[in-house]
Write a structure and sequence with these properties.
Layout: E1 6-10, H1 14-24, E2 30-34, H2 40-46, E3 51-55, H3 66-78, E4 83-88, H4 93-101, E5 106-109, H5 114-143, H6 156-168, E6 175-178, H7 185-195, E7 203-207, H8 216-221, E8 222-223, E9 235-236, H9 238-241, E10 246-250, H10 260-269, E11 271-273, E12 280-282, E13 286-291, H11 295-301, H12 306-312, E14 315-318, H13 329-343, E15 350-351, H14 353-361, H15 367-381, E16 386-387, H16 389-392, H17 409-423, H18 428-435, H19 439-449
Parallel strand pairs: 1-2, 1-3, 3-4, 4-5, 6-13, 6-14, 7-10, 10-13, 15-16
Antiparallel strand pairs: 8-9, 11-12
Helix pairs in contact: 13-15, 17-18
Amino acid sequence: MAKEGNLLIVDDNSSILGALRLLLERHFAKVTTLTSPKLLDTVLRGEAVDAVLLDMNFTAGVNNGNEGIYWLRRIRDIRPDVKVVLFTAYADVDLAVRSMRDGAVDFVVKPWDNERLVASLRNACELARSQREVKRLREIRRELTVDETMFWGTSPAMERIREIVEKVAATDANILITGENGTGKEMLAREIHRRSHRSGGPMVAVDMGAVPETLFESELFGHVKGAFTDARTDRAGKFEVADGGTLFLDEIGNLPLHLQPKLLTALQSGAIVRVGSNLPVKVDCRLISATNRDLFGMTAGGSFREDLLYRINTIHIDLPPLRQRREDILLLARTFLVRYAGKYRKPIRDFDAAAQHELVAHAWAGNIRELQHTVEKAVILCDGTEISPATLLLRPVAQGPSPAAFTTFEEMERAMIEQAMERHGGNLSAVAQQLGVTRQTLYNKIKRYGL
């Protein structure tokens, strides 16, 4: 059996420490010993420790166990993630009950049975690692929780999409959402998850455009300790975190061709294998993917696997750009106005007539995300009760062809990035904010288009 777990042994008897070290170093990855608990604070704050084997009496002539209980509580205060097994030659039922009540995971009596002691300490180490992993997964799930709800609007295109969602949300069918940047693909994915029978489970989002190729397997499938240089502990991947819920793979069109078979294998088998392990782990999660790229054209060109496209594309939903649903622009703008007027405590009631005209007529190359940022900025700048064109600060469409003049989305996207880069003098943070994408995604697109 592989040696795992870091132990700290605290006992004032050097002969006992020597015997324990000889025994336990055969079973655990690291064994540290202390002859006095006075150094516990320093060691626990600076060392990776899973479990402590703690003697209960350190003062000659004292055998009531109070010292052990004190240091047990101290360990719990400093490192609540570390598990404690108490160790004493003066055992009684009341002492065992007190120690377990104060947080010890076990109570071992001297002289000890080797097998019993090793088993107890192994259980303590496994419990510590398991609870740390659960805590990490909860933190991941918490950061992925959002309270925004889907805005459907009144346009015929969105009404049709709403009808599709009402039919497919309750199923486990894999869904591919396509559409330009800023059209609300992730919000739609969250709406589908909210309406599904998996809504009680997590929805885990992964921006495939921001995952480095070298970390792809670790990010999605997890890894075991020692799998590579920085793998200091076991780590669950996004598939495992999403177990019982929904896994949302955003910008799946950015997944390199040589990594696509690994994703396909996981989807076909319903199991993943952590990096550095040979043990398959069953996962049960629904897949929703999204992209602003033409996967069908990429499949024809050989840059996206046809079998993977079929696997992720049981249902295809194409979100229209904002310029194709102009009847929803003012409704959306007023929704954002109410939100940000409340956030910034502004007595703003509406947009004036001229501002409404500009809102509806604007090209909205960045779609809903651009509209949201525009309204927030206008609310911040507005000093009255109505927003005017002077506070909207809508820039005229940059010189060059209109969006309708492009024959492909890629041509239009390339032009949008060029125009934004020129407008902001190459400030990539400002460009990413305007386009509503992350800096990593922007870097990928700049590289892709050779800008």
